[in-house]
Amino acid sequence: MVISSKMMTGLSLFLPGLAFVTMPFAADLDATHHWFSTLFTIAALAVTIERRTVTRLAVAGALVGVATFFTQSAVLLVAGFALFLLWERREDGQTWRALGEKEATLLVSFLVTVTACVTYFVRAVGVKQFFYYTVVFVWKYYPADWFNTWRAYLAARPGIHGGGWVYIPAFLLIHLIVPFVYIPLLVACMMRSGFVSGEPRKRVMFLSATGFSLFLSVASAPGAVRLYAVLAPAVILLVWLLDSRASWRWWLKPLWATVVLLAVARPLVVQFSKMSGRTHPFDDFFGDPLLAFALRLHNVSRVPILRPTDYTRSEEVQDAMQSLEKFQVRYVSWPRELDDDKQAAQHPEGNHPGPLRRYLEEQYHLAHTFSNGDQV
Q1: Opening angle at CA 24, ends 21 and 26, nearest 5
Q2: Inter-helix orientation angle 252-271/232-243, to 10°
Q3: Which of 344, 346, 343, 369 is nearest to 354 (CA)?
Q4: Whole-angstrom Cα distance, residue 302 to residue 280?
């Protein structure tokens, strides 16, 4: 709301935040690193939306450094800031020395913070292990699955059965406005079009430049979850755009209606799921992190998901089996993708969850199969 209040007034300033919470955020209720990174990137934008003083840029650089600690590709936000400062220098007639001081402050603050964040982990596991998980794994195994490549775009479309319809508005929103709301506004600001003029122009340019850089940070694998995490600037600009033109304001009404509907319907859909009647808060559980988060279950897995590709390493499967034994887990969620013969055939060298499937067949029985094929 801090950012929205610098762009609009009245009830409209509440709409971006409510739309973000009820659509993208609620569509991925998981303690994923993406949301921690989003929190700090939004904070960095809030600190600098009004003025870009040296002090504010130092704070923003530190916040982006923490965001990068959670999601490495957030480093591109620094580039977005730097390019905007370059544009702002020309607009305000600043000296090159003043620009250099601002850019240096942003960069140094960012580097110091990132270094401080990773130092503990480098000391704890060693440089070799740290390098493996942050560089080697990302280079060799991260693209092994389709959702870590460009093919993730427009994939995993939500269905209408089993409450899946509550995910459709968020899915439509991200693919309609990211990155498409940024491009015309960037062009309009750079060409000094009358479409964007007056006091809001600089703030529109700032959100467009930084928002587009956030999009680029996920563009190599633009799955829904990653697009949700970088949606906030686009939602703010969308609402500002609709609110700033009288002939477009009527579009705000269906957006408000969607927000209210989802605020009521989504909790009901989750809480009336079949799993909610079988479990209690803080029960040990293994599997779907979204289900675990919604029902307050203790997910014993070291990694959030398993895949029938090299994205899941064999040591992670062994760790999952040891956790099931250690905690004597009662319920296990098994996604249908792990039994997808087509995917397994495409990655025969990396289909590691087989031993876990055999373990479950020996030690567990099938309690329920959902409409999408997932099992418990």
Answers
A1: 60
A2: 140
A3: 344
A4: 21
Distance from CA of residue 364 to its chain's centroid? 34
> How do the domains of the chain map onto residue ranges?
2-259, 274-363
**Prediction pTM value:** 0.81
Contacts of 372 (CB under 8 A, 6+ apart): 159, 161, 162, 164, 336
Strand partners, 285: 299, 331
How far is it, in rounded angstroms, from Cα 205 to Cα 273? 44
Q: How far apart are alpha carbons 184 and 181 in whole angstroms?
A: 7
Strand partners, 286: 332
Q: What would the pLDDT profile of 22-31 be if each residue is shown by its tens digit?
A: 999 988 877 7
Which tokens sit at 273?
Answer: 């799921």
For residue 82, count CB atoms less than 10 angstroms from its CB and return exposed for 0-12, middle for 13-18, buried for 19 or more.
Answer: middle
Q: In the prediction, which pLDDT does 157 show?
A: 84
Q: Contact, 223 vs 158, CB < 8 A?
A: no
Is the pLDDT assigned to residue 340 strictly greater than 70? no
In 3D space, the residue among 166, 163, 159, 212 whose CA is nearest the CA of residue 185 turns out to be: 212
The answer to whether residue 295 scores a pLDDT higher than 90 is no
Provide φ and ψ at 331, rounded to 5°.
-115, 135
d(CA 134, CA 120): 15
Q: What is the chain's Cα-based Rg?
A: 23
